[in-house]
Model the fold of this input.
Amino acid sequence: MTNLIYCMKNIVVFTGAGMSAESGLKTFRDMGGLWEQYRIEDVATREAFARNPEMVLEFYNMRVKQMREAKPNPGHVALARLESKYDVQIITQNVDDLHERAGSSKVLHLHGELIKCRNIHSDIEIFDMPENGLKVGDLCPGGHQLRPHIVWFGEMVPAMVEAEVLIRKADLLLVVGTSLNVYPAAGLIYVTSPGCKIILVDPGEFNDLPGVTHLQGKASEKVPELIDSLLNM
Ligand code: OAD
Done:
């Protein structure tokens, strides 16, 4: 941390489920995580929605409810504070709105957003998610069934190109709370430009990440500490 002796301007923060864990939203692959309770192929694919839309909508409606009850944690708040001195771009795999609610102004969602929905045939028109989520029979004005605005497994990640462009401009890439298991998103840490410093905040163990400084600990503790040192540089 102390040897961040650069002329830093652009900071990109790449976040995953661990960022929101201390706001009470479950991660996917930790013990007790969402993918221990549910099978991806039952709730997070187009095929699952075609087979059993009620089950898929119930899964996302529960997550909408939990998101609405959750509040940003000190990690989210610290990242918003960083904008007082740096150009900060958040790229998140998270589908919650906690970065925005904490005050971050530039947030790119790679895997969609729970506060939005769209019809099953097109992602051109995006609608607000109804307060209590969606049910079978909820239609767009054109008469097609609505679905959550979420990137399901097997679907394209439309924001990847924009994310890569943003990461190439970064002087510092701060990665928080992701197991780096899901591609193409996880590959973003390999597209930085030469000279970009990469710092990972996560309580887990990581091997084989050459050139990455791992600050082992929770987002709500390590992120504010790091942000304080960046603001005091
Ligand atoms: P994972 O559940 O795979 O990983 C969560 C990471 O958060 C792990 O590395 C944990 O060690 C870390 N973690 C846990 N508690 C933390 C805390 N308090 N502070 C910081 N880190 C903590 O979640 P993601 O990597 O985000 O995609 O998963 C990527 C994608 O897989 C998700 O966007 C979702 C999922 O399937 C889709 O649904 C398309």
Remarks:
- Residues 16-18, 21-22, 27-30, 33, 44, 93, 111, 151, 177-179, 181-182, 202-204, 218-219 surround 2'-O-acetyl adenosine-5-diphosphoribose (CB under 6 Å).
- Residues 80 and 104 are 5 Å apart (CA to CA).
